[in-house]
């Protein structure tokens, strides 16, 4: 499986790339290390953003619902993810079956800057949240 070669993990006491205000060790770190599961759709969204930021294609595939998961996931080494803004959420709590998270993710690729604005859909299956798809 192709993947991003960066794999730059923040230290546990560094600010989390998802900009939740928590440290990486308190926020997305345990999820990417597979020592914890996301309790909500928005936390899964944050951890997936962080996985893009550090180049963890394996985590992205593991948290992608089997019905829509791509066979291969090739992350662009030239894209740097700069910031995540959660715009809104619908459902997606610990007892919900599904949820939606609208977000804006700022990035830089080569000399260009951009914003990915997406409304993502999530399903909770056997107690675990999974990304299904999204509308850009």
Automatic annotation (TrEMBL):
Record Pfam families: SEC-C, YchJ_M-like
Signal peptide positions on this chain: none
UniProt-listed InterPro entries: NTF2-like_dom_sf, SEC_C_motif, YchJ-like, YchJ-like_M
Membrane-spanning residues: none
Domain of life: Bacteria
Boundaries of every YchJ-like middle NTF2-like domain copy: 40-134
Assigned protein family: Belongs to the UPF0225 family.
Protein name per its UniProtKB record: UPF0225 protein BJY17_000433
Lineage: Bacteria, Bacillati, Actinomycetota, Actinomycetes, Micrococcales
């Amino acid at each position: 499986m192709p993947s991003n070669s960066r794999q730059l993990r923040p230290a546990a006491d560094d600010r989390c790339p998802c900009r939740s205000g928590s440290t990486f060790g308190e926020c997305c770190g345990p999820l990417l290390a597979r020592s914890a599961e996301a309790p909500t759709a928005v936390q899964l969204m944050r951890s997936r953003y962080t996985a893009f930021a550090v180049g963890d294609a394996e985590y992205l595939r593991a948290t992608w619902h089997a019905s829509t998961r791509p066979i291969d996931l090739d992350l662009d080494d030239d894209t740097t993810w700069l910031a995540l803004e959660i715009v809104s959420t619908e459902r997606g709590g610990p007892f919900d079956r599904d949820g939606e998270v609208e977000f804006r993710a700022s990035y830089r690729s080569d000399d260009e800057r951009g914003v990915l604005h997406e409304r993502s859909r999530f399903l909770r299956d056997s107690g675990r949240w999974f990304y299904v798809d999204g509308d850009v």
